[in-house]
Write a structure and sequence with these properties.
Chain B: This is Calcineurin like EF-hand protein 2. The structure holds two protein chains of two kinds. Chain A is of the alpha/beta class. Chain A has helices at about 5-35, 40-65, 90-100, 115-125, 130-135, 160-200, 205-225, 250-260, 270-285, 290-295, 300-310, 370-375, 400-415, 430-445, 450-455; strands at about 225-230, 240-245, 265-270, 290, 315-320, 330-335, 345-355, 380-385, 415-420. In chain A, the strands form two sheets. Chain A has a seven-stranded mixed sheet, with helices on both faces. A two-stranded parallel sheet of chain A has the order 6-9. In chain A, helix 6 packs antiparallel against helix 7 (about 205-225) and helix 6 (about 160-200) crosses helix 9. The longest helix of chain A is centred in the middle third of the chain and has 41 residues, at about 160-200. The model of chain A is unreliable at about 70-75, about 425-430 and about 450-455 (pLDDT under 50). Chain B has a two-stranded antiparallel sheet. By secondary structure, chain B is mostly helical. The longest helix of chain B has 15 residues, at about 150-165. Chain B folds into two domains: about 15-90, Orthogonal Bundle (Recoverin, domain 1), CATH 1.10.238; about 105-190, Orthogonal Bundle (Recoverin, domain 1), CATH 1.10.238.10. The relative contact order of chain B is 0.11. The chains are: A alpha/beta, B mainly alpha. At the A-B interface, helix 3, helix 4, helix 5, helix 6 and helix 14 of A face helix 2, helix 4, helix 8, helix 9 and helix 10 of B.
Amino acid sequence: MFLLLPFDSLIVNLLGISLTVLFTLLLVFIIVPAIFGVSFGIRKLYMKTLLKIFAWATLRMERGAKEKNHQLYKPYTNGIIAKDPTSLEEEIKEIRRSGSSKALDNTPEFELSDIFYFCRKGMETIMDDEVTKRFSAEELESWNLLSRTNYNFQYISLRLTVLWGLGVLIRYCFLLPLRIALAFTGISLLVMGTTVVGYLPNGRFKEFMSKHVHLMCYRICVRALTAIITYHDRENRPRNGGICVANHTSPIDVIILASDGYYAMVGQVHGGLMGVIQRAMVKACPHVWFERSEVKDRHLVAKRLTEHVQDKSKLPILIFPEGTCINNTSVMMFKKGSFEIGATVYPVAIKYDPQFGDAFWNSSKYGMVTYLLRMMTSWAIVCSVWYLPPMTREADEDAVQFANRVKSAIARQGGLVDLLWDGGLKREKVKDTFKEEQQKLYSKMIVGNHEDRSRS
Amino acid sequence: MGSRSSHAAVIPDADSIRRETGFSQASLLRLYHRFRALDRNKKGYLSRMDLQQIGALAVNPLGDRIIESFFPDGSQQVDFPGFVRVLAHFRPVEDEDTETQDPKKPEPLNSRRNKLHYAFQLYDLDRDGKISRHEMLQVLRLMVGVQVTEEQLENIADRTVQEADEDGDGAVSFVEFTKSLEKMDVEQKMSIRILK
């Protein structure tokens, strides 16, 4: 009994000391650099080490699979089925040609075999379609020691399991508490800081303080997620009176962009913690928050955004026109609302490196809290941000064409596939105009154009 | 981690499905992942809604007919075996299928006859084994939408049924359907190759 006492106090002392050390380290290596916007390069070093470990792990797995003669299932990034990119007309002519021995003239007619075309095309889409692929997380070709990306890899060796176990320990017991502490610090500083700044009289000092409070807190949040971001072409960063447009993969996009620039946010008013943050932020500088009921009214939204944009003293607006989170392998159709306003558009492309942690938020699968926990228990979030040169709407193009032009630029820069489909496809059915086009094409083949009709 | 495998053991009744459809292990695994991806709410089966969500299918003029083909006999759900059974019709015909033709075993799902039967089903709306003039008209209407007048469509339907109809009952039976397409390279036109 007596012998325990000295040990007891020893343990308490050790605990006290380690906590102090931890906090000092935290302050010195993470918070102070965040305030000033400098970096020690610790995260980059961390990233390099991780990459080496992943390469080893994958090699080990491939070797192990060969030994056991298992086929290591390589994820198919190019599609499940072999597709020929031929048009409706060509294919149906092909089908008809193979079916009849009579010479094929170009008189429009119908054949029973025409159905084969639609049949097969339909079946192909059931087996594999571009859009459903975009909405599930991108599949990795090497394993990053996270069981959540491990669809196909079987038990290979003890060493690998130990490594994975170690990974779990580090991620959940060391990194997670650290990150939560940082996130907490970041958010509370944001709320307190912006509230305090709100009391200052309007003027240059207030703006200066507001900008730096915002930047500091976003930088702390970036470190809370261990996000390693590489910014390209920073000279094209958005300026006042412009609209910053980016592709959307997860809510973290906001933190990533806002930690490098000072933006006015646009969004719906939320309740709870988000609501608190929103109300605090708007005290320091004008953000654009909409009530839920106002969001439906497109004219109101456009009016408020236009007002904001025309006031040159106000900050550039940050908008994600896809309207929903896409899995970062492609860019979906941009909603035209933001492109009708007539301001200069500053496109930004964000591309995440899925090797360290999948940042895609599948909102039908995970709630926000689950998602954030997943993010905080990944190794890191590595991404690249490209600031593209500003674009304006030309005289002869309408909002939709302009939106598509911007979208192509973003897709090209980020190495993402430029898809025509609407991001809303995830939840709604598709519009009928596309089907009509197919029907038009086919009708031409069986009845010809209006001019031909009068001839026969 | 490593002990959780996505081997074929994860697919229920993998062996019997393989025997019935003729798909290889690897193909079956891919189709299983596809099935899981389409089954967004993880119900374990697909409903019409799940298939309707496929954008590229929704713009196919015969999309609804194709979706219907997955739900024979008025069922509202299709499980994985049912799903694969339909897809098996589109498996390319390999030499091994024609060689080992055991007369006692049922015809493979991807035989020429079964492929033709699948196409026939798309026309035969009430599943009575015959394509009536009325059914032909309705399917044609699906394929052309509003682009063609009723009169033109009726002409086309009449002509087609007349050409194919041999026993004069005003409808096209499966045998007549097969006969009118006897020169067609059905095996190639109704096949989809799954990549390795």
